[in-house]
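Colleagues,

For the teaching module next term, I've prepared a clean inverse folding example: a structure given as tokens, and then the sequence designed for it. I'd like students to try predicting residues themselves before seeing the answer, so please don't circulate the second half yet.
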């Protein structure tokens, strides 16, 4: 089943977490909030000022500085990864291991090792 087919069959909005709240992460959070299919429930970044700015677009979302807390405290359907390119692999793998659908910006990863880790995690996930 594709994500699109799954979304069409969902009665409630998808619970989305966004990690990495630079310009792209904030734009994606705003886009998810504008969608009738999604609700941003968690925002995650190490920088408090980025969290504060992102919460202007997703005011009901809880803010976190630690992705592990997000994944253990929020029942996410989707984790949207917008960290710097060289930091994509960690959140991607953690999101899959937590049972989330994961969206990652391009490039997917910066090294062959990261790409192999990410592909292996995807193979192991449901």
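(Answer key — instructors only)
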């Amino acid at each position: 089943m594709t994500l699109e087919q799954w979304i069409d069959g969902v009665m409630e909005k998808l619970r989305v977490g966004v990690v990495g709240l630079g310009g792209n992460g904030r734009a994606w959070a705003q886009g998810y909030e504008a969608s009738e299919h999604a609700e941003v429930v968690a925002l995650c970044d190490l920088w408090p000022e980025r969290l504060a700015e992102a919460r202007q677009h997703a005011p009901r979302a809880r803010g976190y500085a630690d992705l592990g807390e997000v994944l253990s405290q929020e029942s996410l359907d989707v984790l949207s990864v917008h960290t710097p390119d060289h930091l994509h692999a960690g959140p991607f793998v953690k999101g899959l291991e937590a049972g989330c659908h994961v969206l990652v910006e391009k490039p997917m990863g910066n090294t062959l090792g990261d790409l192999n880790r990410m592909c292996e995690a995807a193979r192991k996930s449901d």
